[in-house]
Prior knowledge:
6-stranded mixed beta sheet; 112 residues; 4-stranded antiparallel beta sheet
Amino acid sequence: EVQLVESGGGWVQPGGSLRLSCAASGFTVSNTEMSWVRQAPGKGLDWVSSIHSSGRFTSYADSVRRRFTISRDAMENTLYLDMRNLKPEDTGVYYCETSTHRGKGTLVTVSS
């Protein structure tokens, strides 16, 4: 059974950093294209970042480029999102997903 479990969210002041994790089971992250998406309060889902199944290519939304980094760890079978210089507009529930599954999300709140 495929499962995705996000963690690492929390409250942080503007300019701060967080690392989100997505522990996967039932498949291998190192050969699967995966993404992070987020949902701001009262809004729809927005794509944040993706990593190609090969791991060689990553892509980012303009709003997070040069601030966020997507990565994965084959041994831990975990996807990560390193976020720095966080802004209030980064607030939302962050989900990791494959083409067929999505986790339950982790809440990130950026405020002073």
